[in-house]
Amino acid sequence: MFTKRSWIALLVGVNAMLIVALLAQVVSLPTALAQASRRGGKPVCVTAKGSGQTYDVLYVLDPSQAELLALYPGGGPGSKLKATPPRDLKKDFER
User: Fold this and answer.
1) Residue 8: which pLDDT band, with cuts at 50, 70 and 90?
2) How sure is the predictor about 6, in pLDDT bands with cuts at 50, 70 and 90?
3) What is the per-residue DSSP string for 7-43?
4) When comparing pLDDT for 90 and 28, which is higher?
5) pTM score > 0.85 for this model?
6) Which residues, 6 or more positions from 86, have their beta carbon under 8 angstroms from its beta carbon?
7) What would the pLDDT profile of 26-70 be if each residue is shown by its tens digit?
8) Which of 1, 11, 42, 94 has the most CB atoms at less than 10 Å from its CB?
9) Per-residue pLDDT for 82 more than 80?
10) At CA 11, angle to CA 5 and CA 16, rounded to 5?
11) For 80-89, which contacts have Cβ atoms below 8 Å and span 24 or more sequence positions?
12) Residue 78 in this model has a pLDDT that exceeds 80
């Protein structure tokens, strides 16, 4: 039969294992989902400040068509995004 001291040691051990399991979930590094693939892949989006602008620009990279789009706010509040003509990345990066 277990003594009081044995039960306390068992509970301390179980709590230590639970703390280690919890910390392993919290401290784990996030997965990178923007890795290259052979088929082109899904579009990738990123925002950045436009040069000399006070608003952010949404850049959309479409690897399957090798195009880069930029979307920016149209005008007043509630307006839709306006798109710039797409850049042909194959043409831009060829020698």
Assistant:
1) very high
2) very high
3) HHHHHHHHHHHHHHHHHHHHHSPPPP-----TT--S-
4) 90
5) no
6) 62, 67, 68, 69
7) 876 767 666 555 555 788 899 998 788 888 899 999 888 889 999
8) 42
9) yes
10) 125
11) 86/62
12) no
Beta-carbon-side half-sphere exposure of residue 50 (alpha carbons within 13 Å): 12
Helix (H) or strand (E) holding 93: helix 89-93
Going from the C-alpha of 82 to that of each of 10, 60, 73, the distances in angstroms are: 64, 13, 6
DSSP state of 86: P
Residue 90, burial from CB neighbour count under 10 angstroms (0-12, 13-18, 19+): exposed
Task: Please answer whether residues 14 and 6 qualify as being in contact, where contact means their C-beta atoms are separated by less than 8 angstroms.
Answer: no
In 3D space, the residue among 64, 65, 62, 66 whose CA is nearest the CA of residue 45 turns out to be 62
Q: Give the DSSP letter of residue 51.
A: T
Bridge partners, residue 83, by sequence: 71
